[in-house]
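ESCALATION

Customer reports they have been waiting on this structure for their group meeting. Please prioritize. Original submission:
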Amino acid sequence: MKIEWYAFRPEDTLVVKAASPSELGEGHRYQAIFPPPVSTVSGALRTAVLVQNEIPFRHYIQGKADGRSEVQTIGKAGSPAPFSVMGPLFQRGDKLFVPSPYNWFADKAELSRGNGEVQIYKTEESKSPLLKSSAGDILHMAKGASTDISSIGGHWLLLDDLFSSKTRKQVFPVETFYSTEERTGIALGPSRQVRKSHLYSLVHFRLHSDVRLIYGASAALPLPETGSLILGAEKRISYYQKISIANLPGNQNSSAYLALSMVMGSDESNAAVVATGKPQYIGGWDMKRRFHKPMRAFFPAGTVFTKNINKNCIAF
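Update from on-call: job pushed to the front of the queue and completed.
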């Protein structure tokens, strides 16, 4: 599958609201997701195609533009995108960083120091007759030099280190790539007037000056080589640039697949998961119905599967 890669650089901060209450009296502090999930980026790219090819939203929603080649590439209003989005990766300088696998572990004390090399302990299939699942599932376990080890899932690795044979690898916390800023605002009503006594707080994310977000699309989208689009909440502008990245490496002899993107929970993904973190719940906004999409549970990036669930995984 040929991937068209995009490097994103927000003009200011980014914010993507997570699944949390937003009704008056149910709290004023909302959770946010970062990096933006592929569903958010897919929607932003589809919208950018409409804007940059001068296709009115009302024509798109009403189906009046369905015959245009641009619409055939991004999909009709109300239907899933016919292309997939992979990522994110972080890029700093000429280095690419991928999510750390949840089935790799390190000494908790070493890991807590941040931005340092740690000894990696990989999970293996349990051979003990005492450790068996009642459902017959294969169980995995990791054993470290100490009794206090922790998964490195939620951290980041250099892409090259994912395939390196060395047992000590540099693990990067998320703070390596961005900082957070809590901001307070006041809600607006349908007519864009201030809603009395309706304050809220959101965490905004600011990429460090030498960092870019990298996403890949499985289709050649009708977009200029460079441009801008709206990404996330509060109509935040991000600049993009199409870039060239060599095919991501993969270990063809491995049966472990690292998810570079969130993976929606399903019977197939549930049966194939080896190691994962806390599920995240994502909805979104349906442009055609002008209503919220249903909330769905997703495995986080860095989850390890026994097969390439959604073509956004790499064997390692």
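Sent to customer with the following note: The radius of gyration is 21 Å.
Escalation resolved.
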